[in-house]
Amino acid sequence: xxxxxLTFAVGSLLLYSCGNSTNEKSNNQTEVAExxxxxxxxxxxxxxxxxxxxxxxxANMITHIRNMENDINHFANVEQKDFKSLAEKLQTNxxxxxxxxTMKGKAHDELHxxxxxxxxxxxxxxxxxxxxxxxxxxxxxxxxxSTFNQYFQ
Length: 153
Hints:
The protein is mainly α. Helix content is about 75%, strand content about 0%. The chain has helices spanning about 1-15, 20-25, 30-40, 60-75, 85-100, 105-125, 130-150. The chain is elongated. This is Lipoprotein.
């Protein structure tokens, strides 16, 4: 239940930071609520290609995604694993990514299908109770970036 609430809250934050101004929010509260439910449903849907091609992610956003990917690739090669520190770095870039969201339309919707589960994975990494649990979440995050690179550029 907490995961559902967290996912809904993160979805709300993402939608709000992706172009909803204060005036739009007050005028379109019902519409935003419907979008939140829609994006929550997207989380379980498969990501689609753009007519067989990868989706283009805006330059200001891809920077933060590539920073996270670089942190993950670097972390995979270090001997001393500090999972909590990695989770903090990833969360910082998630915050920067969501606050700089400029994408719209289908590309934006498809990115959310990847991003919402990824945000949950980072949260679970930060809350891991032991190294085995953290290591498993780290592997899930690595796999998530493989998926990202199949669908986005």
